[in-house]
Structures are given as C-alpha cells and as structure tokens.
Amino acid sequence: MTLPFLQFDRVSKNFNGNSANTLVSFEVQQGSFHGIVGENGAGKSTIMKILYGVHSPDSGTILLNGISTQFNNPNQAIRAGIGMVHQHFKLVPTLSVWENIILGHEPTSLFIPKTNLLATIQQLQNDFGFSLDLEEKVETLPVGQQQQVEILKLLFRKARILILDEPTAVLTPQESEVLLNRLLQLKKQQKTIILITHKLREILEFTDTVTIMRQGKVVATESTASLDEHKLATLMMGRDRQVPVTSQRSFEPQTAVLEVSSLSTKSRKGLQLRNLSLNVAAGEIVGIAGIEGQGQEELVQVLTQLKSFSGHIKMLGEDLLNFTAYQNRQRGFGVIPPDRQKNGLILPFTNEYNLILGHHWEKPFQGLGCLSFPHIRQFAQDQLKHFDVRPCHPDLSTATLSGGNQQKIIIAREASDRVRFLLACHPSRGVDIGAMEFFHEHFRKLRAEGAGILLISSDLDELRTLSDRILVIRNGAFIAEKAASNWTLPDLGLCMTGTES
Amino acid sequence: MNTVNRIFIPMVLIGLITAGIIWACGENPAILAEAFSNTFFSPFGLGYTIYYATPLIFTGLSVALCFHAGLFNIGAEGQLLWGSIAIVAVSHHFSQLPVFLAIPLGIILAALAGALWGLIPGYLKAYRGSHEVVVTILLNFIATTWVGYLILYPLKNPNTQSAETEIISSTYFIPKFSNAFSWFGTELFRTTPANLSFFIALFCALLAHLILYRSALGYEWRAMGTNFTAARFAGIRTRTQTLCLFVISGAFAGLVGVNEVMGSEHKVIEGFSPGYGFSGIAVALVAENNPLGIIASAFLFGGLQTFARELEFLSDNISKDISIVLQAILLIFIACRPWLAKRLLKQRGESHD
Amino acid sequence: MNSFLKALSYFLLFFFSDAAYPSSSLKVGLVLDKGGKDDKSFNASAFSGATEAKKQLGIHLKVLECQSDSAIAASLRTFAQHNYDLIIGIGFVQQSPIEEVAKEFPNLSFLLVDAPSSLPNVRSVIFNEHEGSYLVGVIAALTTKTNHIGFIGGMDIPLIRRFERGFRAGAQSIEPRIKTLTYYVGASSDAWRNPTKAKELALGQFSKGVDISFCAAGSSCAGVFDAAEESHRLAIGVDSNQNWVKPGFILTSMVKGVDLAVFQTIEQKLKGRFKPGIIHLGLKEGAISYSLDQYNRPLISAQVEKQTNAIRNLIMKGTIVVPDYYKENQRDQSK
Q1: Is chain B adjacent to chain A, meaning 3+ CB pairs within 8 angstroms?
Q2: Which pLDDT tens digit goes with each residue over C43-66?
Q3: CB atoms B159 and C81 under 8 Å
Q4: What burial class does residue C2 get, using C-beta atoms within 10 Å of its C-beta: 0-12 exposed, 13-18 middle, 19+ buried?
Q5: What is the rounded radius of gyration, in angstroms, for the C-alpha atoms of chain B?
Q6: Could C96 and B160 be called an inter-chain contact, meaning their C-beta atoms sit closer than 8 Å?
Q7: Which chain A residue is nearest to residue B235, measuring alpha carbons?
Q8: May I ask the CATH architecture of the domain A242-332+419-501?
Q9: B35, B310 in Cβ contact below 8 A?
Q10: Do C130-255+301-332 and C24-127+259-281 fall under one CATH topology?
C-alpha cells in the first residue's frame, strides 16, 4: 500500500454553534475513484469545501502527499491541482464554452490567443473523450453538457483531483450513465475522482472505495467490493432501509381535481406545448416522465398562472382563470416547484417566514394586515418538528439548511393536510433516501386522504413507485400513457428518449 | 462590540481624513471640533440639522421602501416637487379654510401629489416592463420643468422678481419649534426653521418600519425584493405591489413639501431642493434601508450640511464645496464598508461565512 | 443615575443659553449667492468692495457662499447668531430672507443690494441701471456698422427689462431707425448660469446681422463673450468691468458700483452713521458708469467718448430723463 495521497486528520468545523464536521478522518488513494456517501446534512459537502479552501477548518489538518496543507481560497486549491464541480454550476451563461473554460485562468497577454487556446482545449477534448462545440453559448447547452464544461474547465487547469458534488442530481438516467463512465475514463488517466452522492447504485457500480458519513462524522471508509446495497444503506442511515412498496391505491379515484383539455402555448422562441389533455382525479397520483426540457417547465408555468395559454383548464372544479394564483392556493392548490432555491424559497428569510410564504394572508398568520408572530412561530415549530427539519429552529435563515432540509420546508408548506391538488416537481431531487421515503409516504397519505397529485420527476424509480398512471412528455406533447405497473424501466427510458414511441 | 467598531472606526477615520484636508487648506484642524459642537450641541446648529434632516427622512424612506422590493426609485426629487407645489395650489384655491382643516388637507394633498407622480413609473414598471430607473430619472426632468412653469406663471408671487410662488395662507402654517414651545416659556431652536413636521417624519419612519417588518404587505415586498421568482410562484401579485410601492414611496417624497412649504418657507422657491431626492439614496444606503436607521442617517447627512456651513464660517480658506467633499468621503467609506468590516473581523480572527 | 441627571442639566444649560460672542472690531458678514465670489460680475464686485473695506478700515470680514437659494437664510442667520454688526446680502433673491432674518434680529444692521426693503434695520440700495444702460446704448449706436444691435437678458423679470428699456432708448436717441433684437435666456433662475444657451442666443443674433450685443445675464454672459469672439463681433459686459475677459471683443461694460455701495455702507456703519431706508444710486452718485480702460481703448474713438460723456452730463443734470421700466409699469414694480 502506497503512502496516502490525500489524508483528512481529525478535521472539525462549526457553523454558528452547529457542528457540521466532527473529527473527520479518512484517506484517499492516488488514482482512485472515491465515493463519499451520506444523508443530506451529513457533512459531505462541508468537508470537501474545507479541502477546496471555501471554508477553513476549526481544527484538524489535511495532508496532501504527506504535507500539511490549508488553502485560504479556491484559487490556491486549483493551483495545487484540486478542482471541484459544485452542485449549482458556476458558469457564465452568456459566454461561449471556450470562454467559460478559460475564465479565471486567462492568459495575461493583451490579446487572447484564441487559436492557440482552442487548439489546447480541443486537445483536452480528444484526450479525455469530450465532444463539445467550443463556440456554443453555455446557456443553450443542456444541463449534462454544461456539466461537461465544468469538468473540462478543471482539466484545463490541470487538476489532479476532481471533486464532484452530487453531479447526477440534475441529470437524466442516460446522462448520468455517460458522466459516470467518463469519470471512470478519467480515473484510468491517473486522475483522482471524489464523488459526493447519496445514490447507492452509483457508489456500488463505479467507486473503488467509499467513505460513509452520518451527522458530520465518518462512519466507515471501506473498499466498495466489500459492500452491498443493504449494508451500505444500513451504514449510511443507521437503520434498516425500507424497500419501497409498490403503488397501491386505497380507493377508486372520483372527482377530477385537474382537467386539462387541448392546452397549447405560443412562444416566439423555445418550446411550445401542443394540445395537451390530462385529468387528475382526487385520490390519484399521475406521473409525468420525460427528459429535461420537454415542456415540463412550461406546464408548471401554465398551472401556476405565470404563462398564458389556449385551451381549457379546470382546477378543483372551477376554471383556473376564475381565480388569481393566490386565490387558487387558498382553494387547496399546492406547488412543489422544480428549483427549490430559485422558485420555492426566499433563502435569506427565516424558516418560519418561508413556511408561510403564499399563505401569509391567511388567519391566524395575520390579522388586520399585521403578522401575528406567536401564531407563526407556533405553526412553524409544529411543522418543523413534524417534517423533521434539522436544525429545528424557526428563526434560522433557510439558507443555512442543507438542500434536503430546504426541500422539507417546501413540502411542509405546499403539501399540508388541506391540499387538494398538488403539483410536485422533482420532489426528491438532491435529497437522501431517508427524506425521499418520508416524502413518498407523505404523498401516499395525501392520496389516501383524497388529494390528487401531478408528479413531474426525472427519477424513474420515484415515478414508478408512486404513480398510478405515467404519461410521457416529449417535445411539448404527451406521447404515451399507461398504468404505472404496465411500464417497464427500459420501456419508459426508450419512450422518453424517443427511440420508441 | 462589532457594531460599535463598525460605526466607530470609520467615523474616526473620516474625522482624520477631514482633518488632513483642513490642514492641507492651511487651517487649524481644531475648528473641526468647534464646527462639530456648533452643529450638534448648539440650539441654532441642531435646529438647522433637524430642519435639513426632515426632508432627508422622507426621501430616504421613499428610496428604502422601494429598495426592499428590489425597486430603485430615483424619482423622489420629482415627487417632492409635486408635493410642494400641491400645497401652494390647495392654499390658492381654499385660502379661507380653518386651521384644523387646512393643515390635514395640505399634508394629504402633498402626499397625494407625490403619490400620483410615483404612480407613473409604478404603472410603467409593473404593466409595461419599463425600467424604473430610466423612467424616474426622466420624470424628474419633466417634474422640474412643469413645476417650474407653475411657479413662474399660474402661482407666481406678483410682489417679487424672484422665481417663487405666492405665500400660502397662514392657516396652512405648521408651527416652528420656537413658536410651538413658547407656551412652555422657551423658544426652542430659536430663529431656525425647524418645525413640527419633523414629528411627521418620525411618525412616517415608524410607520414604514411597522409596515415592512410587522405586516403581511411588508412581508410580500421583502419577499419580492429577495427572490422575485419565488414570490411570483407563491402567488404574490408582484405587479400590484410594484404599483403600490411606487405610490407609497411617492407619497413619502411628496411630504417633503410639508416641511419646506407649510413648515418653513411658506412658498415654493424655484430650485429650493438641493437634491433631497438624490441625497435620499445615500441616506437609505447608509441606513441599509432600515426605516429607523434612516432617522439616524438623515441626521448624519443633515448635520453634514450644517457642519459644512459652520466650517466655512470658522475658516478663511474653506469654501462651500467642502460639504460635497465631506459627502463624498462619507459615501466612499460606506461603499467599502463590507470590505472594511471583513478586514476588521479578520484581524480579530472571526471569519464568518 | 445622579451623574446622568447632572450631565443632562449641564447639557440643557448649554443648550438653551445663547452663545455670546465678544465684539471688538466691527464684524461684517457678506452672503453671496450661487454665483460665488468668482463670478466676474455682481458677486465679485461686492466681494472686492468688502475686501477693500477690510484693507482700508480694518474691519473683521467673513464671506459665506450659498450652494442653493434655500441656504441663504441659513447663512444670514449664522452671521446673526454670531452677532455680526453688519450683514450684507447681494441680489434680489435675498430680499425675503433678509427681511425674515432682520425681523428676528432687530438689533443688527443689514444691507440689501438690488431690492427694496423698508424695515428699520435694513438699508437697501437700488441702482439706476436704466441710466447706465442708456449710456452703453448710446455707445453701441455710435459704434454699430449694421444699425442692428442686440440685447440678451438673463431671467425675464422687470429688473432686466429695465436694462433693456434703457439700452434701447439710449440707442434710439442717436439713431431712431436702429433695430434692437431682444432675447432672454430663460424664465427661471437657471437663466443666470446657462452660458451655453446664452451663447446660442448670441450666435443667433450675430447671424441675423447684429454686430453689438449687450448682455445682462450674470454668469451666462460668458457665453455671449465667447460668441462675440467666435463671430468677430462685439459684446457689452455688465455689473463689473468685464473688459479684460475677452480683450478686443468687449466694447465696454455697464458698471454697477456694488463695490462702492458695500464699501460706503461699511464705512458709515463703522462711523456710526448707518441709516436704514431705500437709497437710489445712479450716474450722479458715481455708482453707475461705463468702463473705459486699456482693454477697450482701441474700440472706442475719442469722438464717441466725447459724445457719450456729454450725454452723461445731461442725464446727471436732469436734462435727459431716461425712461424707467419700473415707473412705466407701476404694477410690476416690486413693492
């Protein structure tokens, strides 16, 4: 066994008295594919951000090639050959691919030697098997390719260690497969890969070694070969993982909560919705599958009244447009938006403020226009406890919560007991298995109580375990519909990608 | 402790830099201390400081309120002109009203006139997608010219050659401190134009604070300002609120007229505002848009005006332009305050993330 | 708690007692308007009169410039607060601030230049601008080759119309068929400091055949001088002797003896002979004149000089009565 390439030695970090990492110690070998797995808020991202120089550790050391190292900012880390792809990309959308790649690393000459640079980048592409159009604007690329730009950017900076924070959270299954295989390729070319994820399958199929974290501590660092799914899940959650039950409808769907007929949208550029028809009955979960950007966003915008349309939509028995978006929420319409940070939460606000967003005119949250703080506090405390949001402080800024806990706040708000029609977009994106199962259980409970749910997700397992029916959307139109039990995973994947209709 | 440092250290630095400038002008820096005490600790200086601070509270609130919702109101200057001229107009038409009707009517019309001028950018922003900065800047020019016309022609004072309106009817006068407190045997702030509309400004600041942080409406505004898309997703009627905000901001700016016209000058002099609307931006900036903080920062900027005059009076080589220099120094310090705070904290080994 | 009360009472004591300043020599305060002491015109003239008084009479002099019209009252009060014996305000804009402050401080003396006031502690000086304008009108009519002269006024107010009326009458007294083209820079107080617009107006006049333009527009006149230089025509300056500003292009200046009025008032105050009331100063008192120095000597022939001086003497004797816009339009006269 060689000298450990990268070694964490009893690293600890506190944020405002909340411990994020406690005495974290593990090793990463050179040229290995190392996974870090754990629930949301387990401290995976924090330890990597410490390595990357975003945070400084309170105590403990990091050894790189046996030498104690501490970076004060990411630039120093990059110079030392460490690169990180964040969960939320740090690209400039209006610049082209090659401009993004050299950004922050531009040659210091007066004029940028474009041809030379393009040749260098192209050489990198060839070496590592990428095939991006370098002149393309980043904003026009699909998410998967944007991620490739991020990786190329690191390779251009001659990174030896690549850290990827939940890279597959935003990708379709096919794209994920491509990415992970590409990472394997990089490993073969002597790069060290550190993959943060909570998808067990990715760990088991691709990594060499894995560090399992829970509540800021390292539970174990093991060779992947010695683990199986069950064992891994047990280590990660500290309890036996429940096997998802197959969908069971408790009673027959009755009245429709959503009736959409011949819905179309017009837009000068981009995608149009074409003649969509769809019913969601009370006590039913209808899933919509599709690769990203096939009209799901537009459908959400139409239902939340942010986009004009032609056709007829009846929600909860009344024409959608008879009420304002706000009034529809009062009538029992809940929305879990596709991007929780962009659309769902006001991050700098406190948890209690986020928990009443969109319901802030309701009694008892306000009286005579004045917010009633005791009632809000009481409500927030109940909800935070009920949905197990950690840390459970109503007056903590939501920005300080981990992604999964942020999502819990949205679900607590949008999918409360009185919701009668829930539009759920990617409800479990980027959350751990424990939270995901909790959400699914909650959705099933809502269904049993007679709510209708329209589920838009890129996680096919989620769609199949939850939905009663699944529709496939492609290029702005529904192209297939079957009962969930009649879809096989390959069928669904093929139908989405258009190889079979 | 940190807060004290954050305010105190920049202040000391500003003092030192100013002293340096004064010294470079060939004056004794000790006059700084005298000017300071004349500004804040003499009845005359303090009276003027209050008088200057009052309009800055109004315009500061006008800017800050919009800012909370992510809107930039640069139109306070135009709005306050309309507020002022409205008072003269109402007095022109209803000169015989008794005091108890005249004063509320004047105040309401000043606010209303400002609000109407705020309605235009509000509507254009909310329903036509125009950029509010461009619209409000241009509306300032229109207001200056239009109000200028009203001053010079329909409401002109025929007894003077200056560009000013007729004097409003005395029932519209808001008492000066010196008169209001003479019942108690003291002429508070004697011979200064400080008047009771200062209390209206304080009340407005308190009101704005309550609306922003205690009401559902303020909650919506702050939500809009922090994350506009999420606010829209939550069903907040962002257009209505944009309109509403500009109207309220305009009303606050319009109230400047109460201090100027009903409180002190009793007429509108052309070009009476030395840019209160624009200083309001700086006032709001210093206060980090906190309505109660605006009271303090308006005092700071109002005091600066008095301070500059005292400085000019006490010295031979310093001209009126010192007030611009002082404001500039102040603003530079405010602009680099985040950086300064970071440096200070870092030295104390408390890095925040 | 006790010490707090103590501190508070000291504070209040300090607060409500008017600060008393000992007066040794005569203290004179001069408040200039937005133009400032370097406006080469009205304010500059007042400033030089006051500085002269300081030099010759050994008084204590303090000058405050106002950033805006609303700061005038504050500056006047600053002087009054510090017990200045004589406070001088220049320009008709200061009329109402001076009256306001004079009422608040009845024990102090005030001088108001260019506007009337009948308060018991205010002396107000009004110049017979029409007489001086008449004279420069005569010079213009004697000099013009095109028989076409121009007038550029600042703000369109009776004071400036008085200039225009005198100027036109003076020119017509020489050549009844002479044409006078009159422009005003504006209707608002911005007209006093808008040289760009004044220059456009002057260029317009010159292009219409005007070869001499009389400018009575404060700082805006700089634009008229520029235009004269560019078009190789002549301009006539105002208030101060402005001949030196563009030598060769300024025919003469209608000089208003603001410096004289300021100096004399200070001297009288010093000798205890200060008298309130409205004083009219004109040619006879030597407070109004036209300027003749090395800069415009080549432009004015001995013949013209002789003829102008003859007319000046007739006005001083009362043989010629110069039309006065104020008297012709009693309605518009200020108070």
Answers
A1: yes
A2: 999 999 999 999 999 999 999 988
A3: no
A4: exposed
A5: 21
A6: yes
A7: A326
A8: 3-Layer(aba) Sandwich (3.40)
A9: yes
A10: yes
Residue A211: beta bridge partners? A36, A221
Buried b (16+ CB within 10 A) or exposed e, B68-96: bbbbebbbbbbbbbbbbbbbbbbbeebee
Is A53 at the interface with chain B, CB within 8 A?
Answer: no
Number of H helices, E strands in chain C: 11, 12
Q: CA nearest B311 in C: which residue?
A: C64
Domain boundaries, chain C: 24-127+259-281, 130-255+301-332
For domain C24-127+259-281, the CATH class is alpha beta
Torsion (CA) C187, C189, C193, C197 in degrees, nearest 10: -20
B334 part of a folded domain: no
Please name which of C286, C261, C269, C293 lies closest in space to residue C45, comparing C-alpha atoms: C261
Q: In this complex, which of B42, B190, B320 lies closest to C65 when CB atoms are compared?
A: B320
Cα distances (angstroms) measured from residue C116 to each of B125, C101, C125? 50, 15, 7
Q: Which fold has domain A6-237?
A: Rossmann fold (3.40.50)
Q: Residue B176's domain is classified under what CATH number?
A: 1.10.3470
Interface membership of A326 toward B (CB under 8 Å): yes
Residue appearing with tokens 């769809």:
A278
For residue C291, pLDDT over 60 is answered with yes
Q: Which residues of B touch A397 (CB under 8 A)?
A: none
CB contact under 8 A, B236 and A358: yes
Q: DSSP 3-state assignment of B313?
A: helix
Distance from CA of C304 to the nearest CA of B (A): 35
Chain B interface includes A366 (CB < 8 A) = yes
Which ranges in chain A are annotated with CATH 3.40.50.300?
6-237, 242-332+419-501
Give which of A15, A329, A346 to mutate to test B binding, by max B Cβ within 10 Å. Answer: A346
Tokens of B272: 């009476």
Chain-chain contact of B216 with A365 (C-beta, under 8 angstroms): yes
Q: Give the helix, strand, coil percentages of chain B, each rounded to 5.
A: 75, 0, 25
Q: Could you give the number of structural domains in chain B? A: 1
Measured CB to CB, residues of chain B less than 8 Å from chain A are: 210, 214-217, 219-220, 222-223, 226-227, 229-237, 351, 353
Query: Could you tell me if A321 lies within 8 Å of chain B, comparing CB atoms?
Result: no
CATH number of C130-255+301-332: 3.40.50.2300
Q: Which of A176-180, B311-315, C125-129 has the highest mean pLDDT?
A: C125-129
State residue A238's pLDDT score: 66
Q: Using one digit for the tens of pLDDT, what is the confidence trace for B70-85?
A: 999 999 999 999 999 9
Per-residue pLDDT, A40: 67
> Does B161 contact C96 at a Cβ distance shorter than 8 Å?
no
pTM: 0.80
How far CA B286 is from CA of B9, B225, B289, in Å, comes to 15, 18, 8
pLDDT tens, N- to C-terminus, chain A (501 residues): 456 789 999 999 887 666 788 899 999 998 899 999 887 667 888 899 899 988 889 899 999 888 888 888 888 898 889 999 987 788 888 889 998 988 877 777 777 788 888 898 998 888 887 888 888 888 888 778 888 899 899 889 888 999 998 888 777 777 888 889 889 988 988 899 999 987 778 888 899 999 998 878 898 898 999 988 778 877 876 654 444 444 455 455 568 899 999 999 887 655 688 899 999 999 899 999 887 778 888 899 999 998 889 999 999 989 999 999 888 988 999 999 988 888 899 999 999 999 999 889 888 899 888 999 999 999 999 999 998 888 888 988 998 888 888 999 999 999 988 899 999 999 987 787 788 888 999 999 999 988 999 999 877 788 888 999 999 998 889 999 988 888 877 777 678 765 443
Token representation of residue A413: 């708000």
- Residue B96's domain spans which residues? 42-320
Of B43, B193, B310, the CB nearest to C16: B43
